[in-house]
Design brief:
By secondary structure, the protein is of the alpha/beta class. 32% of the residues lie in helices and 20% in strands. It has 9 helices and 11 strands. A 7-stranded parallel beta sheet has the order 1-2-3-4-7-8-9. The protein has a two-stranded antiparallel ribbon with strand order 5-6. A two-stranded antiparallel ribbon has the order 10-11. The longest helix is centred in the middle third of the chain and has 17 residues. The model has no long low-confidence stretch (mean pLDDT 95).
Length: 280
């Protein structure tokens, strides 16, 4: 890191480029971050999805493109010395993914863990694909939530070195479509908070849900407060898939975290370590 960060410095721990399912380049994202006064930008394209999840390689960095992905990152980093850029990945967890994640993410400075897929790698479904709602109709929202929390806790308990668990209550993405649980989610959320604590994971406070019309952050306020009560640290990210969304809402997220009881956030360093930085 370039030096101690001031409280409230803008840090975006979750962004994507066109190497996965984003629209911009590393250079375009870096330019947008610098213009927004960002101090630390973490680049986290998707990787290690099997063919059943991503048959055409549209939403991830396929293995053969890893060298060109790293070269493009390094070019943007060199062009923006005013910005601390870290190279990371968002790795989807599913049963049996561990060897692929370790191999493909070798050399990454930050590794986000996430769950978008329920089921085995060759027999499952996306939970946040608004164009394919079959799992929501087959299982119903209550069972989707139960299955999701089991998978999320399995991801936390996996031996993979996930630095942060991204957008922890992703099923909320379907709330604008009316796909809302009818059960009380509090026991499931308590389970998530306990699991994150027991496995030593950080969780992401993501501004993406606001852009998706969810009406709250990921995680929702009640879940965020449970993570805080359990002593689970947070990192903040935009999950930007367009340059114009890089750092979007991050400063407001700091205030939101403060109101939920957090006083610090976690910020990654280039050497792989993490610092605890005051929110203000």
């Amino acid at each position: 890191m370039m030096g101690p960060l001031a409280p409230g410095a803008i840090v975006d721990c979750h962004t994507h480029t066109r190497f996965s399912d984003g629209t911009g380049s590393f250079e375009e994202n870096a330019r947008a971050a610098a213009a927004a006064g960002c101090a630390v930008l973490v680049c986290t394209d998707h990787l290690t999805l099997p063919a059943s999840m991503d048959p055409t390689g549209e939403v991830q960095v396929v293995e053969k493109d890893l060298p060109s992905h790293r070269a493009a990152f390094e070019a943007a980093r060199a062009a923006h010395p005013e910005l601390e850029m870290l190279c990371g990945f968002e790795a989807d967890w599913y049963p049996g993914c561990e060897d692929a994640v370790r191999r493909w993410s070798s050399g990454a400075q930050v590794l986000l863990g996430s769950v978008h897929w329920l089921g085995e790698k060759d027999d499952g479904a996306w939970i946040d694909d608004t164009s394919d709602l079959r799992i929501w109709h087959e299982l119903g929202p209550d069972e989707v939530w139960r299955h999701y929390v089991r998978a999320w806790c399995a991801a936390c308990e996996s031996p993979l070195s996930f630095d942060v668990m991204a957008h922890p209550d992703l099923p909320e993405r379907m709330r604008p479509l009316g796909l809302v649980a009818t059960i009380d989610l509090a026991p499931l959320w308590d389970e998530m908070a306990a699991c994150a604590h027991d496995t030593g994971r950080r969780v992401e406070l993501s501004t993406a849900a606001l852009r998706k019309g969810v009406g709250d952050y990921y995680p929702a306020r009640d879940l965020l407060e449970r993570f805080r009560a359990a002593g689970v640290p947070i990192a903040v990210g935009s999950d930007a898939h367009r340059p114009e969304d890089v750092t979007d809402g991050v400063a407001a997220a700091y205030a939101h975290a403060w109101d939920a009881g957090y006083r610090t956030m976690e910020v990654p360093r280039a050497d792989g370590g993490w610092d605890s930085v005051p929110l203000r």
